[in-house]
Amino acid sequence: KKMPGMEVDKDGTEKSQGQEVQKVYVDGKEFFGTDPKMATKNLSQDMVESVQVYDDMSEQAKFTQMDDGSRLVAELAAVALPESGARVWDCCAAPGGKSLMLALRLGGAEILASDVSAKRLALMSARLRRFPYAERVRCVVADASSGDAQRKDGPEGAFDLILCDVPCSGTGTLARNPEIRLRLQPEEWARQSARQRAILHGALQRLAPGGRLVYSTCSLEPEENERVVEAVAAEAGLRRLSVEPLIARLADAGTLRQDVAVNLLGSAVKDGALRTIPGVHGCDGFYAVVLERG
User: Fold this and answer.
1) pLDDT digits over 130-181, tens only?
2) Is 91 a catalytic residue?
3) What residues contact residue 272 under an 8 Å CB cut-off, 6+ apart?
4) 74 Cα distance to chain centroid
5) CA 10, CA 104: separation in Å to the nearest integer?
6) Candidate list 91, 92, 164, 218, residue with the active-site label
7) 97-122 pLDDT, tens per residue?
């Protein structure tokens, strides 16, 4: 539920009059506001939702406000990092929520966050500066789908983990953003799919041997999800890893509640990929699959 005048960014970050809305927890309940100290005064009690999907409500994590589905993708990516991995690339990073979660979870990793939009990346950099644990995240302007990935000031070297959270139609967020229906056209799927394949192909050029890539969208459409992965992964000779053991690890670590993990394993995993459904899982619709280079 949103405050009047709110708009929602790619990872579920809500803004009111251009200011990012913060989330705070009071007795396990979420409250929102542009100023954390005033957050509990901005919503009436009947508008407050008690999500409590995650057990982790640490001081550092409190104000990383995200849709639970978006955060789940970031958590899966973090736990997917190979044991010997040290280099991480979030290749479509803005507005930065998932980069923040990667920084929070992967304290010893070198993290690069890039985006094709200089404006969005500047806003993201300002957001990251508010979190001490994100100080080591390096931000660069780069287009993962083009030769920018080979530029000296772009992503250099190979990465052990790549989060490829590509731009998409956003149909998984229709419940919160119904205006999306007004701009969707039949040709949209082909346009989005072509761009997503290009980004995934470009990102894979930087995946180290034994490295893992998490491809994700907030779309419900197979043209943007399974078909993109099938087309690119087969050509690149990658193997798919099931998200089931990753969800189990999140539950064992206390990051994900056991009952939520059981529900996800029973209803949100198909053919080893994650697919959350609005109205079923209490979050936006997300798709995520883990690919590994042999």
Assistant:
1) 999 999 999 999 999 975 544 444 567 899 999 999 999 999 999 889 999 8
2) no
3) 240, 241, 242, 243, 244, 289, 290
4) 5
5) 20
6) 218
7) 999 999 999 999 999 999 999 999 99
